[in-house]
Amino acid sequence: GYPRLSSIYASYGFDVRHVPLDAGGIDIDALDASGADIVHIMPSHQFPTGRVTSVTRRYELLGWLAGGSERYLVEDDYDNEFRMAGRPIPSLASIDVLGRVIYIGTFSKSLGSALRLAYMVLPPVLAARYDAALGFYSSTVGVVDQICLARLLESGDYARHVNRYRTQRRQVRDALLAALAASPAAPRLSVEEADSGLHFVLAVRTGATEAQIARAGLRHGVRLAPMSRYATADDGAPWDDAAGYAGVGASAPLPGYADTMPRFVMQYDGLSPEAVPRCSAALAAAVLETAR
């Protein structure tokens, strides 16, 4: 998961539990066993795995909500505009008849993180409670910025901008994937979840560890984000590349995976077309340097 989320919730005094996921999304049995009342998920593009929650699992999540009167689901749709293939996926909020899904999103991917623009759509009951308890708060986004964004949305210019940007990012992604497929390291590389959003997962068939490949990447000029960096046990203990979780061992797969291949989160929203050849060459060199 996204480590900063855990830190934010913990800072407000919440008892944070980390729930595993499988190919279909969050594990419902593990969610039940966790005793949680609130679940924060990214069903359209889970970070860091890139997995999309299946339709069946989405309805199971709505069933989980129905199992308790104070259960809520936070649907974090942080890059929903950038699905690269297929039709857009309906949000959980759009099929929520209980009024228990809190939908949040951001303009950081589409307009830039410096603007600090985000939004939250509350169910009617929670919206009323929010107004009563916190309605005195002022928005941290300036009025001018809000008016500009509203006009951008109402005019259709925002949708046109997103379409252009998505096309540009798809071209960069395709160029990167083609360069990796043509590289000497291609037989060792496997791409996962390439169409879900602005990052994909790169798996490497090798006897080296993620840390070893990442260090080699730095020597060749590319910074890699190991998947294990985002793995956390239920007790909050991070994954150790050499020892795994305490009592588990490094030979065990990362949670949610059936194999022990090193994996890396490949974000390309900031990658320029000109940098693609250098990036792919450096990555291939790092993989081959550490190959066993």
TrEMBL record:
<protein>
    <submittedName>
        <fullName>GntR family transcriptional regulator</fullName>
    </submittedName>
</protein>
<dbReference type="InterPro" id="IPR051446">
    <property type="entry name" value="HTH_trans_reg/aminotransferase"/>
</dbReference>
<dbReference type="InterPro" id="IPR015421">
    <property type="entry name" value="PyrdxlP-dep_Trfase_major"/>
</dbReference>
<dbReference type="GO" id="GO:0030170">
    <property type="term" value="F:pyridoxal phosphate binding"/>
</dbReference>
<dbReference type="Pfam" id="PF00155">
    <property type="entry name" value="Aminotran_1_2"/>
</dbReference>
<dbReference type="InterPro" id="IPR004839">
    <property type="entry name" value="Aminotransferase_I/II_large"/>
</dbReference>
<feature type="domain" description="Aminotransferase class I/classII large">
    <location>
        <begin position="2"/>
        <end position="216"/>
    </location>
</feature>
<dbReference type="InterPro" id="IPR015424">
    <property type="entry name" value="PyrdxlP-dep_Trfase"/>
</dbReference>
